[in-house]
Specification:
The complex is a heterodimer of chains A (98) and B (300). Chain A is 45% helix and 0% strand. By secondary structure, chain A is an all-alpha fold. In chain A, helix 1 packs antiparallel against helix 2 and helix 1 runs antiparallel to helix 4. Chain A is globular. Chain B has 300 residues and is an alpha/beta fold. In chain B, 42% of the residues lie in helices and 18% in strands. The N terminus of chain B is likely disordered. The chains are: A mainly alpha (98), B alpha/beta (300). Chains A and B meet through helix 2 of A and helix 9 and helix 11 of B.
Chain lengths: 98, 300
């Protein structure tokens, strides 16, 4: 996965300011709960995005949300490659490949 | 051939099948200064044509040159630009490509004012829909970049959309000289199932009201027996990149943008630009560049 730093943000060079998988997961759950009009506790991170009926519109909005959290450019294919909240959060918590 | 000896005044009135003045102005009349913060310096607000080593500005000029070439508009007497934006193509036609007279149509008051203020003797700009336009003389070429997206409303059925597009092509056919070319650029639905349109109320309500995208098949059907298709390009990666550059420029000018139009509007545009960029990357949206040649002998 190629990632490019967003203009105007400092390079994501170190490990220190990288959000944990838990923090990323929490952000996703909060965002999706709001989009799907569910309570946070109703969202199971182990279930697929498809299970929640998440279409490409919601999926790309989610990726935008995560770009802002992680401060780096992400690919919109991520929810397809990592089809659960848990898998995607774990992947994103790994160091970015530049 | 007889059609060009007669006046080309429209015989039958057409109701604008697409976005109204009000809907267009909600998007394009936000503020010229705001758009200036994230577009290139010529304010070209449509997908660029990226070549090696291009900046946004050079890629936008490459795009204009591409359409001028496809429409065979260079050195023409009269060229029509449907959806002329802030007028860069009109200026490029008369200043760089020796076109004698360029006419631009727009529904945006801000764009109309900007082009009108040029007071260029070879440029005419009209605050008018193509559906109401009735030229006194025919055209050698027609170019329409990033306007077709507004030619159908969201609620229209497929049949209604095709009928609306067909009235557009009928008008263009009527206005164009024998053998004339038209170059069209539009976003289209790509890998999205039919019947399930891109159902994001955010885009439909807050970004492009009263507008729905076409599909390639709808465009092709609507142009049947009026225009033959000479070339089709799908350059969706060009728009993924253009939208991303706009997004990044808006981000880096964020404080100025917020001061001009407020936090909520800036956030809305950021979301739209990034979502569209992703949609092009995924193939949910396509960027079509279609070259048409007028069919002169119509078979009934």
């Amino acid at each position: 996965m190629t990632t490019i730093n967003l203009a105007g943000h400092a390079a994501d060079s170190g490990l220190s300011d990288r959000p944990s998988a838990e923090a990323i997961q929490e952000r996703m759950i909060t965002y999706l709960a709001q989009q799907l009009q569910l309570k946070s506790e109703e969202i199971d991170p182990k279930l697929s995005f498809e299970h929640y009926g998440i279409d490409s519109v919601v999926a790309v909005s989610l990726i935008g949300e995560l770009e802002d959290q992680l401060r780096r450019r992400l690919s919109p294919t991520l929810p397809y490659d990592y089809p659960t909240i848990e898998a995607l959060a774990e992947h994103l918590a790994q160091p970015a490949e530049i | 051939m007889h059609q060009h000896t007669m006046a080309i005044t429209n015989k039958v009135a057409i109701r604008n099948p697409g976005a109204s003045f009000e809907a267009i102005q909600r998007h394009y009349d936000v503020s010229n200064e705001f758009y200036r913060l994230w577009l290139d310096r010529h304010m070209v607000y449509s997908c660029a044509f990226w070549g090696k080593g291009d900046t946004l500005e050079s890629a936008q000029l490459r795009k204009l040159d591409y359409h001028i070439e496809q429409a065979q508009a260079a050195e023409a007497k009269r060229v029509l630009d449907i959806g002329c934006g802030w007028g860069k193509l009109l200026q490029h036609l008369v200043n760089q490509h020796r076109v004698e007279h360029a006419v631009g149509l727009t529904l945006s008051q801000a764009q109309f004012q900007t082009v009108n203020d040029l007071h260029h003797p070879q440029i005419e700009v009209r605050l008018e829909s193509w559906s109401d336009y009735s030229p006194d003389h025919s055209f050698d070429s027609i170019i329409s970049i990033g306007a077709f997206e507004h030619f159908a409303v969201l609620e229209a059925s497929r049949e209604q959309k095709v009928a609306g597009y067909r009235s557009f092509f009928s008008r263009c056919h009527q206005w164009l000289k024998s053998g004339g070319y038209m170059s069209l650029q539009t976003i289209a639905y790509g890998d999205i199932p039919r019947g399930k349109y891109y159902s994001d109320p955010f885009i439909a309500n807050e970004i492009f009201p009263q507008s729905d995208l076409p599909r390639l098949a709808d465009i092709a059907e609507a142009a049947e027996q009026l225009f033959e298709i000479v070339a089709v390009r799908n350059d969706r990666w060009d728009y993924a990149r253009t939208m991303r550059v706009w997004f990044e420029q808006l981000r880096s000018n964020r404080p100025c943008a917020v001061a001009l139009v407020g936090e909520e509007m800036v956030a809305r545009y950021e979301r739209y630009l990034r979502m569209f960029s992703y949609s092009f990357e995924l193939g949910a949206f396509l960027l079509l560049r279609i070259t048409f040649r007028r069919i002169d002998r119509l078979r009934r």
